[in-house]
Amino acid sequence: MLRRMLCVSYISGMSGNTFGKSLVLTTYGESHGDQIGGILDGMPSGITVDIAEVQRELDRRKPGQSSLTTARTEHDLVRFHSGIFEGKTTGTPIAFSILNKDQRSKDYGALEKVYRPSHADYVYDAKYGHRDHRGGGRSSARETACRVIAGALAGLVIPDVTVKAWTSAVGPVELKTNWQHLDLSAVDSHPTRCPEASVADEMAAYIAHVRDEKDSTGGVISAVATGLEIGWGEPVFDKLQADLAKALMGINAVKGFEIGSGFAAAEMLGSQHNDEIGANFETKTNNAGGIVGGLSNGAALELRVAFKPVATIGKEQNTMNSEGESVTLAAKGRHDPCVVPRAVPIVEAMIKLVLADHYLRNLKYTR
Amino acid sequence: MLRRMLCVSYISGMSGNTFGKSLVLTTYGESHGDQIGGILDGMPSGITVDIAEVQRELDRRKPGQSSLTTARTEHDLVRFHSGIFEGKTTGTPIAFSILNKDQRSKDYGALEKVYRPSHADYVYDAKYGHRDHRGGGRSSARETACRVIAGALAGLVIPDVTVKAWTSAVGPVELKTNWQHLDLSAVDSHPTRCPEASVADEMAAYIAHVRDEKDSTGGVISAVATGLEIGWGEPVFDKLQADLAKALMGINAVKGFEIGSGFAAAEMLGSQHNDEIGANFETKTNNAGGIVGGLSNGAALELRVAFKPVATIGKEQNTMNSEGESVTLAAKGRHDPCVVPRAVPIVEAMIKLVLADHYLRNLKYTR
Amino acid sequence: MLRRMLCVSYISGMSGNTFGKSLVLTTYGESHGDQIGGILDGMPSGITVDIAEVQRELDRRKPGQSSLTTARTEHDLVRFHSGIFEGKTTGTPIAFSILNKDQRSKDYGALEKVYRPSHADYVYDAKYGHRDHRGGGRSSARETACRVIAGALAGLVIPDVTVKAWTSAVGPVELKTNWQHLDLSAVDSHPTRCPEASVADEMAAYIAHVRDEKDSTGGVISAVATGLEIGWGEPVFDKLQADLAKALMGINAVKGFEIGSGFAAAEMLGSQHNDEIGANFETKTNNAGGIVGGLSNGAALELRVAFKPVATIGKEQNTMNSEGESVTLAAKGRHDPCVVPRAVPIVEAMIKLVLADHYLRNLKYTR
Amino acid sequence: MLRRMLCVSYISGMSGNTFGKSLVLTTYGESHGDQIGGILDGMPSGITVDIAEVQRELDRRKPGQSSLTTARTEHDLVRFHSGIFEGKTTGTPIAFSILNKDQRSKDYGALEKVYRPSHADYVYDAKYGHRDHRGGGRSSARETACRVIAGALAGLVIPDVTVKAWTSAVGPVELKTNWQHLDLSAVDSHPTRCPEASVADEMAAYIAHVRDEKDSTGGVISAVATGLEIGWGEPVFDKLQADLAKALMGINAVKGFEIGSGFAAAEMLGSQHNDEIGANFETKTNNAGGIVGGLSNGAALELRVAFKPVATIGKEQNTMNSEGESVTLAAKGRHDPCVVPRAVPIVEAMIKLVLADHYLRNLKYTR
Question: Which chains lie within 8 Å of chain A at 3 or more CB pairs, if any?
């Protein structure tokens, strides 16, 4: 018998929690369940893993690193459950998890029925027939902690590659210096993760000001990757810049992506934009951002990512509740006035996942 | 540096020619082979297909539409080989092809050994151990004709959705009018595909000027999609904006992608950027660009895509040949001074493929 | 011969730990790590989950259920970490794990250097550059516990479907009764999971005899699924029987698969084998086993799976060690003389995963 | 607005027309459209392709090779459209097609409303809301011609591997000789593709007898692959035997699959079944069929596939038509009394596709 199509009572499930083709990350976990975690499948065997180094990466995204970030203190400790034996990868899937210790659901009780503007509350309700009011459930940025862990592991697959990201703009405050003239080793020495001290201080002052106004601000993260081989990326749909864009646009709060010249290219002439090929096939300029025809060309990978301001603010806003009543909302929960500094390791992690995946996809067929 | 693989004789193959999860497009074909084409798998059965309408979409991207585009005249005629019977889809894979009629390989003979700046020649050589000097081979934008055909079919899966793209900038000439005040039905009435006549004329003049200078220019395409249901997109990696970014960044010459407020969000305050929720859960503003938490929220989808100037120009440039000798190059082949007008239907096609795919992925589980 | 890759130091990783397209299971864990587990992605939201029922399924495969199985007692307790809130699925990925309590690595110390005949030891060494001598590592059948958990959840997606498997042969002892004349509710009432008491006793006696001989025996599991809709399965490569075959041949120790008439079909005439279509389009016979053209036809799904005898036996065998020396081996570890009774819930679980996946893949496109 | 769930008018589409992970085949085409074909993506570049050799493989499956097969004469000529340049693969997707010349739709007109027993007519109607009565549409075995072409290309990726299949049973006539004692180069010298002349003659006589009775018969194909490296296959779900089973069970009319000892293993003791490891780690027996733990072990891959008798027979059968009326049917169309001889190259092709895919998936990570 053909199935009776009665009216909907159950609703479609998610199935977008997996990333990558050869190096495959699947994550799980809600912001206020007992833990979050993931499985990284496809890691080659025999790679030495320094777990303390992975933990250091994870610590870079945690809240409470300075007065500029939320007071929430997540004591995130990574735990590995498989795929690593006596300090080396075994080639089996690597499972990891982080306990959710500091949950404070009561902070969210008040929001149970209110749809927060520019949050996923309402659309989750519509899609899944329910929402987890305890801090966003699956839509919480807490999920990105798993990406940082996986990204740190992915980096071990491509040891010749260096990936560095930094805060290049916070609200109106912009770092204009070209990356070649920045000391990228200094990124973490300032809470804003801006490597130029004077600009970093301006950014910090602006964030503090915004915080005091019970408001939030957006910003921009720039990133550079060096040491890529020529030829990573797969024409035509899996071009390297396409997979990077998907990886980075999938981070919470990201609104824009540029590779190389980005939007500036729209105003340029071909004679200005073309990267002339010089000795050793190196290009004199890098408007391409390290990618031509969808493939890495050996030059530095250069990209920029725009973040919107945090949606949760203390200022009063008009919105609706699930009864369809107009209400006002002024968030009391703990939140960041600017997520950009904490997002730097997340951007690096997603770039590493894409590059390691394409490195493995490009393994040579040798006879 | 190129990876040392002394023993290599064969080289890794491409496997990135497939796009989509539920509605799956795979394309093939080189610019100068006998034909190009593709297979669209996952089309529901019973959908009426107006082949003339598909051909009209294809005609919108063809060269030679005006003095502003290349003189090459591709008589692209779509042919369907399966999946359509008596004017309706059958649910089987839809195969289509276009013959490559006007090949003129001789135009390219001169380039056999020269690596064209900002083209894929050199990286293809490095990755595949050969290059097709006859107009770029697989890296040629000709492949996008297949995307236009598939996109036209994808649009039939979501008849309630309207997708409109237009040229919003050419070089320094920008269309500043908000889309709500544009007559989007007028997009095709001007060769530049800018719906505002006065700005369109400026753009045309600029393109003509650039062409006469044997140069090329970049530009921006804006797009809007209306009629989406709430809830398309799959957390966490397959967020709707992530899949749109991958789809659009995968188009030749695209350097940047923005959803909603885009890079402008970086300078905004949360209190400015948040879209307050009003009556009927409609938002008063749309900085989100129609997506929150990775899911469509029922508002208009708004995005922008930046294109670099065409790399092939008549001006003389310095580069290298495969012997490693410095040479100068002034392209003689037929080429566009600005691809943006012809790229409008390609942008619409990729958006339709993403939306139809996510519509099908979101099919409800009904009992 | 092993492929010559003189420069190899790292070795390729696994990436086959994911199963399904719409309902996607990824598992992890070695037999002697701290835990095993998995993530089930794509579960629709709003489905009530009875965790005790899942635990009951898990208990059906555990060792130590009778004198016929290994004395190892795994206290397997399923723990859920995400995707279930207040007793219902949320539509987010469901993560689960089982602690590895009773590890006894010392049992295996002796085997560190010995390659056990018909075990994966040697090929894992060759592929991954190492082996986990502690009971087979990833190749251990312990991994199937995760399949049982996921299968129990999958069954909730298709509540109208009943899947029943049973032991239909152990060594030479065969159950010849047609399933329509069996009381399938009695399967668990006998330790052999054979629903016909007299045959079950014969099987038990044979297993006991084999155990006393320090030997092991193979067997056959038959399964039937009823309540399928018409049309599950996707031509041409993802035919329902093809995905069932992959699912069941992927269970440790399985050597053969049959759908409907199976190998007997080879000796039949078309006029005998064809299932004539009678009233209400029901077939009088079911040689098809419930599938025609790769799609379910509404009749009962009928299949059989052959298991080889357990490779680990107490009898002395000749083999080699990693030094390439000939040695003899007589296993001392705890092992089953026949895995078939414990494999019954695993077979049911894999069938449920395939059917739920294809049910979701077949969701109708409704307008 | 949330989507209105009205009753079904359109029906879900197929999306199972793609096979493989690293070497990816997508096929299209109905038995009576203008052509069938496919795209093979992931072929490494630089591989020499002898198109005549591919054509020879294709000719092995064509009808009309002898009086034992259908009188239909398909003049199948393979045409390549991309991915091969100057006799070598380029690394781009390889598209190929075959024209459907000899269509004779009139043969099928009579069947328009009749559901043929053990054919896909009725389930296609139910799933897709229509059927193609012109010889089975997509469910026709004609689609397998594309598999033969792709399999011939796949074989070029693994030149050290030899794959040989042969007819080992037709109805009650069985070839009992062990393959090591067969001259597998003689397979094509007899129309039945049985390499032992005396048994081949018996088979031919039986097929002729069955044909004269307007009936059909099933059979068994055995296959052996040698030259595999150790370690092909990916634990846990993509075990080599699992992917082989999926590949072969997906061929029309296949009802059973065995690897190595197969169903015979069920009756064996561990002490009989275990393959003792001898000098050079070679096993003395090969009950494993060349696979342990899901990975190739360097021994010969040995498998068997059971085919049901052709469903289309001249004998009169009872069935129903789309009006739900009981009718009798005696096929007049041209059909094979036994497909097994023609299926031999299809079995070889699917094995090659699986082995080449797993070879590429197993490429070493070399530093």
Answer: B, C, D
